[in-house]
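Researcher: Quick one. four chains, 1344 residues in total.
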Amino acid sequence: MIVVMKHGATEEMIQRTARRIEELGLKAHIIQGTERTVIAAIGDERGKEELAACEDVEQVLPILAPYKIASRETKPEPTVIQVRELVIGGGRIGVIAGPCSVESETQIIDAARKVKAGGATALRGGAFKPRTSPYAFQGMQEEGLRLLSAAREATGLPVVTEVMTPHHVELVTRYADVLQIGARNMQNYHLLAAVGEIRKPVLLKRGLSATMEEFLLAAEYILDRGNHQVILCERGIRTFETHTRFTLPLASVPYLKERTHLPVVVDPSHGTGIASLVAPMCAASVACGADGLIIEVHPDPKKSMSDASQTISPEAFAAAMTQCRLIAHALGTQLG
Amino acid sequence: MIVVMKHGATEEMIQRTARRIEELGLKAHIIQGTERTVIAAIGDERGKEELAACEDVEQVLPILAPYKIASRETKPEPTVIQVRELVIGGGRIGVIAGPCSVESETQIIDAARKVKAGGATALRGGAFKPRTSPYAFQGMQEEGLRLLSAAREATGLPVVTEVMTPHHVELVTRYADVLQIGARNMQNYHLLAAVGEIRKPVLLKRGLSATMEEFLLAAEYILDRGNHQVILCERGIRTFETHTRFTLPLASVPYLKERTHLPVVVDPSHGTGIASLVAPMCAASVACGADGLIIEVHPDPKKSMSDASQTISPEAFAAAMTQCRLIAHALGTQLG
Amino acid sequence: MIVVMKHGATEEMIQRTARRIEELGLKAHIIQGTERTVIAAIGDERGKEELAACEDVEQVLPILAPYKIASRETKPEPTVIQVRELVIGGGRIGVIAGPCSVESETQIIDAARKVKAGGATALRGGAFKPRTSPYAFQGMQEEGLRLLSAAREATGLPVVTEVMTPHHVELVTRYADVLQIGARNMQNYHLLAAVGEIRKPVLLKRGLSATMEEFLLAAEYILDRGNHQVILCERGIRTFETHTRFTLPLASVPYLKERTHLPVVVDPSHGTGIASLVAPMCAASVACGADGLIIEVHPDPKKSMSDASQTISPEAFAAAMTQCRLIAHALGTQLG
Amino acid sequence: MIVVMKHGATEEMIQRTARRIEELGLKAHIIQGTERTVIAAIGDERGKEELAACEDVEQVLPILAPYKIASRETKPEPTVIQVRELVIGGGRIGVIAGPCSVESETQIIDAARKVKAGGATALRGGAFKPRTSPYAFQGMQEEGLRLLSAAREATGLPVVTEVMTPHHVELVTRYADVLQIGARNMQNYHLLAAVGEIRKPVLLKRGLSATMEEFLLAAEYILDRGNHQVILCERGIRTFETHTRFTLPLASVPYLKERTHLPVVVDPSHGTGIASLVAPMCAASVACGADGLIIEVHPDPKKSMSDASQTISPEAFAAAMTQCRLIAHALGTQLG
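Model:
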């Protein structure tokens, strides 16, 4: 890291700071600039906070990325996730679709059949639902998991569903093919550690206000426990924009893919919150290199018990996938 | 709620929407405007999402606040929290101070004595630490809780400490006087439910990108389980500003106090991330009506194992409290 | 608009507010809800601020969009802008490319030839440069405009260039084919009025923190003066994200196109600030329905006197356009 | 500045970059780290963008603040602005109050008398109004300036009023004592240059999404032209928060005062947009060291032709000033 001394720092202050850097086990390299002195601390980034707190120091500039296992420098070849017919990464674009919540056996099996017909390679559906209000529908819980299994039986589609608390990891792992960590739990470190212990893929959603570094460090929590099957999911961030539910910053897709070997999927349903914007954002995601899509589709969107305004019909879904398939084909990748 | 029909909606569309509103158990009241027709749906806000998803509907405007127990309409008189010498609310400003992390017995007892001397009425200190990186110091865990108890023994100060996962609620409740829910866990609903079951005060930090409504609904999760001792804590939000660690939006203090009976405290340490800005923000918080402060103070700030750059010394703390006491006195409130 | 009365408003307060609405020339329609009384004020949205300021009123909810001429309700068919070979809108995707700044005759003519060869249908280049620092290069001014004309002579490409102040509108109009209003000037109302008086197309960039409504109202300033050739340009917004220079919220493209007949182009160079992200964001923009692209291309990007890190080479530009052409073809639109 | 080479940069790449740095007239100092090589470029920050664009370079970290004249390093003693009875800076807190817009002679003289009685030391009032919509009231223009002069005659209060375009600078300077640059014009560089040529104080409002560095660089445009009487005004920023009109980040007050000698005032009216929050935010501003306040006060707030919901009455203003005076007194500063 680079330690920038305050304007007017005396030789004594500089020497004291350099000594502290050496005590931390790093090599201190003093550079006298025209207006400022900086000290390069060679080794790693330990002691960063302590040095930043020294009164003689103006700022400390880190040089190294703090994530290791997630980094493309560590593993240059892309990670490919495969579960049944779902393939995510390596030029294959996975399509995860289904209702926001599991509501009944008829609904989820109907949804599964229709999204499969429309081009999905996996089924999504919430059994445990994180809801802003304690008074809103919280999901069918374990019964929902059972219905998801039934839908898998009926269609062969692998199941992606959310786990909200460490205590449920074992239960959800029994039923699900891919465990989802929601945006509000991206920094629920006990939950990240718990899914790091299992050996099924984890779809990790970006937090509403998470930086790229925080997002990759959240993945690192899972990877560090030995679970290397992590799928990153861009689902939109919170900004001053209110015309859409969130702001979907698609440049994060190519940005992440330059830095990590992990696959990156996009959730245009939460990313926009508006049904009519889902298809264009699916197309844009495929065009900029996303490894997958996760989309809210309900047999009867208006009757959806949650997220109704961002849910699309099976017909709209099929049309969007047809368009995405053409774009993928034009770019030499494969949808589904 | 108010249902705004799309431009050019036909009489049939309007009648169909009105029928749907009546089916939901609400009374539909059609108002023909000059350019738009709107339907007032009288009763409560059920079916909001479904109606918003109708293709004939442009938007649905909610009228009622979705939180009930937290609302000042439900309980006009302010809630006062009292634990030992800590009083928060009703004109008394609680002062919670101490190190970011518990590091050793000497450190925490030394810190407790010094913050007490400087004017603190409670001790803060992290035993379980949520850290962005899996490679950072994660706290002393249960041993940290024991040392906090020892510091309480030594000084009489009640202890405020964070709980990160439902599984630890029982353990932390055994040692702590006030349980803190961190900003990253503000929407960890299983954790909110778990602390809703205990009968000790909970200090709930605002999420980094939480709206006021989401913040009050998070409190509602705790209140709804029967724990009525909730303290709201403004700790700064994430915005485009990078000169400070977060942006501290103090207008939330009077805004919240107009809407809820719960007390509101401010965390200027995380809210700014810069030690030299902590004292001015303490003064500003007291001036705009905060019911308390929570401040990171370490016997030797540079040696702090976490958050070093935002931690102040016991001397700086005592000076800041002297200034706050003068302001509180001028305004007819009481610090400490 | 809908006027929501405060909780507990008395009959007298309600009648007084209703009378004020009638005095404003609107029709007041009182609706007694279960928990709140609301008054529908029928007519237009006049008096909104005054009513919101009444102490008996909780909030005022507007129903109508405040822009008129820009609205798709006013003019359902899309506006198509055509200048020489540049066509923007109606299924044709215009490609505006060139250096950030005009630097010399050789540079701008070389750039024009190369972007034309790569697929551009217009040349961009700044003669007047808005720069954050007074010490940075401010552009070649009128000499730059002359060189742009020379480049048009040499290649036939129409010229898009920025005007920064009302005083220069006449001058820039003499040389340019399309006048650009920069993001920092989106609410420079005297400048908007001045370009509203001319009869050449105006490319209006979205402000860094402008809402969709503010963006369309800025366009309305120009339209209202009689200049109907307005091109909207999404160029990224300021959010908490710092890994890219700005956040490029592509959902604004389909969102705007649902609401306005004006064409929408995307600037992926400023929108990301990183050269390697420009091509993926071009592809995404075409995929989600953008009517055009505006891209920074320099014969020797590293030597660019401004915006070097987001500028791409003519070779990278040509490759990106090849990809975009395939996507446009797949979607039934036409690039260039 | 510090040039960070890409991971795996070869000796040849490093030498090539170092040569380029020397060609720019800087001294290159190569530091071989454990995982990365960095090059310290000693001298100033020229060529920053070019170096950042080199393909062998990962990033360039600037070391020096880009503003010079505004910096406290250049002029350690605080700048004090004095016009008639208005004193801003050096322990004196100026109080600028008045209506959003000048509406009539009676209104502005009445307002001036009442704010003076309540403690104001200057009168604010808009003659030229920047309005989001072309259909909103745009101000009384020159007639408004004449009425402001009349109010100064009647009360002795100096006048603060906005100038929106370079063409009006001469006119507004004739009538006003302090010229205000609005938030939307903070980066209207031609306007900044124009007010840099006059010799009256300029109150520069922070842009809605301006960083501290951009804010100080905007001031630098004015200072660089020779006008050293610049007052910085924090008026709130645009964030995801919608419960207030803007987010008022008061930590910017002490942050700016550490870095610049220019005085800093706060606008709690625009900063919150809600009348009931103005008084608490005035108190907080004084408590954290603001050098002044600028507040919207109208003889009859509900009748205000603009910004009605954030305007307070003369009585509320007088009460707020009484509270602020007590706080200032407690802190050893002086209000008014």
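The two ends of chain A are 44 Å apart (CA to CA).
Researcher: Thanks, that's what I needed.
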